[in-house]
Amino acid sequence: MNNAVSGFSKLSKDDKIHWIANEYFATPNEAIATLKQYWNSNEKLQQLHDEFIENTITNFYLPMGIAPNFLVNGKYYSIPMVIEESSVVAAAAKSAKFWSTRGGFKTTVVSSEKIGQVHFIYKGALEKLETFFTELQPKLVSATDSITKNMQKRGGGILNIELRNKTNALANYFQLHVTFETKDSMGANFINSCLEQLAKTLKEEARNYDAFTQEEKDLQVVMSILSNYVPNCIVRAEVSCKVEDLAEKKIDSPQEFAEKFVQAVNIAEIEPFRAVTHNKGIMNGVDSVVLATGNDFRAVEAGVHAYASRSGKYSSLSHAKIENGIFTFWMELPLALGTVGGLTSLHPLVKMALEILGKPSAHELMQLVAVTGLAQNFAALRSLTTTGIQEGHMKMHLNNILNQYQATKEERMAIAKHFENNTVSHSSVVALIENLRNRY
């Protein structure tokens, strides 16, 4: 039928579900049962989930796993990861164990500056606007005192307010470019509240500025919003060891492996088609921890990929080198994260994830997210430059295929034994299942 619906948001949860089931499914009762089986039996907890977003009909589950043995700055961590893709958690854990015997991960928060902007249109003399802004700056800061008071107590607040002339790109376009320190909160609501107050003060003061003409007094604020591009909110993560210490079961020649690994990274640095997939692998690790800790992975993704393009060409986020017999693999990432506010105090599993991580500060979480991304990247490049990516990935994917075909315990045992020495592919698994079932 696929008809339009009026007043959907005002329907009860049950009525929403019944409308969806009857509108889109041939067997509505089955659809209703499927949706309701994912409801939490704890009514209070279900209500909490219902109120996270609008028009809730059910819960969408993703697996939460643990990658242990991350040695970061001399301290061991078990890192919670929320992701649906096979082999990601296993790969991160494998890399963590590998580097735990080779000095572990070293991390540093380079800077933690956030950015927001008031975008406005001004039609008038530039010199007058610049003079007006110089006089206005103290009033802009004082106008936000009530908003920034608590943040200032924690060592945060507004760092700087700058007038930026963007008229070379768009006629009459200017910005108030504002930098912030938000300590352990991601700070989106705080930043946006500050920006809206700054915009209000800008408009009011412009109307009363005697040196402006009427047209200049009527400057137009287009919007006030934080930026998810945070090139000055940077964390660095790295691993290094002697080249000969890279030796392990599948690395017979450490020198050859190291050189091939560096070349693989070099290719991602200059070839965008490879860089996108290379960086996607990093984000497998990054996003899974961002999700587990209740942070905004869409904001992180947008900012990270903008950062990867900051030279004007999309490139690798990670880098590698061999120098004086030392292999070094490192990465710098822009990460605006929080450990207070948002879902961090609401979602029970987010609270558990943060507890597992030792109740980290925002700076500490930045470091743990970065090492997970670097570990994931190392695992992918190690596979690509040795056995190939599919061997390990398809063995992990095998379980998904067996679940899809509802394999029995006996079938699983026989299939696992067969693929100990054979390459896993979807078609070969299906053929083996059919062969086993045709025997009986």
Present the secondary structure layout.
Blueprint: H1 13-24, H2 28-36, H3 43-50, E1 64-72, E2 75-82, H4 88-100, E3 106-109, E4 114-121, H5 126-143, H6 145-153, E5 157-165, E6 173-181, H7 188-207, H8 214-217, E7 220-227, E8 234-242, H9 254-270, H10 272-292, H11 297-308, E9 318-323, E10 326-334, H12 348-356, H13 362-384, H14 389-404, H15 409-418, H16 426-438
Helix pairs in contact: 1-2, 4-13, 5-7, 9-10, 10-11, 10-13, 13-14
Description:
The chain has helices spanning 13-24, 28-36, 43-50, 88-100, 126-143, 145-153, 188-207, 214-217, 254-270, 272-292, 297-308, 348-356, 362-384, 389-404, 409-418, 426-438; strands at residues 64-72, 75-82, 106-109, 114-121, 157-165, 173-181, 220-227, 234-242, 318-323, 326-334. The chain is of the alpha+beta class and 440 residues long. A four-stranded antiparallel beta sheet has the order 3-8-10-9. The protein has a four-stranded antiparallel beta sheet with strand order 5-6-4-7. A hairpin with a 7-residue loop joins strand 5 (157-165) and strand 6. Helix 5 crosses helix 7, helix 9 crosses helix 10 and helix 10 (272-292) packs antiparallel against helix 11. The longest helix is centred in the last third of the chain and has 23 residues, at 362-384. The radius of gyration is 27 Å and the shape is globular. The model has no long low-confidence stretch (mean pLDDT 94).
